[in-house]
Write a structure and sequence with these properties.
This protein has seven helices and seven strands. By secondary structure, the protein is of the alpha/beta class. The protein has two domains: 49 residues, Helicase, Ruva Protein, domain 3, CATH 1.10.8; 92 residues, Dna Topoisomerase Vi A Subunit, Chain: A, domain 2 (3-Layer(aba) Sandwich), CATH 3.40.1360. The radius of gyration is 20 Å and the shape is elongated. Bound molecules: zinc ion.
């Protein structure tokens, strides 16, 4: 029987995406063996994340500043917004500076199955940003899943009367493809070949 402390930590780690109970327990044992080296590093990193990271009120990115570094960067194209499902997608696109404009993180995708409605996402905030003017292009960079594409169509419809060009990542993304898992070449190609919605 493991101690209560080990059970508690294993339980907390097992809730992380991609980790099950077995790998969580292995991670705990690994950390116990390295309580002088790796454990303090992990504790420090976790504290930093808790104390310093905030969600950007404008775009939904996670950063040490609010508004985030991307929103306040004057070198970026102020006139285009790339809409993504999750922060991980933003980071994937921004890793190689594939997109030089601003971003908007929806916080998920529409899903009848999971009961995710438009008001559960930041679609209203996106419409507000576009409504304030000064935006030429909205790039819909949803994942190539059914739910991602449903979300893209919904947003395109809501933007139909706005004076902006609405484009979408080129197909050719693997079906069911999540942006976060694509290599930079594939992402760059999908972005370059983006096309108008409709
Ligand atoms: Zn931001």
């Amino acid at each position: 029987m493991a101690s209560q402390e080990i059970e508690a930590l294993s339980g907390a780690l097992a809730r992380l995406p991609g980790l099950g109970p077995r790998s969580a327990r292995r991670a705990v044992l690994w950390l116990i063996k390295r309580r002088e080296t790796a454990l303090p590093q992990l504790l420090n990193a976790l504290t930093q994340v808790q104390e310093l990271l905030v969600e950007c009120e404008v775009c939904g990115n996670v950063d040490t500043a609010n508004p985030c570094g991307i929103c306040t960067d004057p070198r970026r194209d102020q006139r285009s917004i790339c809409v993504v499902e999750e922060v991980a997608d933003l980071w994937a696109l921004d890793r190689a500076r594939l997109f030089t404009g601003k971003y908007h993180v929806l916080g998920g995708r529409l899903s009848a199955l999971e009961g995710v409605r438009p008001e559960d996402l930041t679609i209203g905030q996106l419409l507000d940003r576009v409504g304030h003017g000064g935006i030429d292009e909205v790039v819909l960079a949803m994942n190539a899943t059914l739910e991602g594409q449903t979300t893209a169509h919904y947003i395109a419809e809501r933007l139909e009367d706005a004076p902006v060009r609405v484009t979408q990542l080129a197909h050719g993304l693997p079906v069911g493809g999540e942006l976060d898992y694509l290599d930079e070449g594939t992402l760059a190609q999908a972005l370059r070949a983006r096309r108008p919605v409709g």
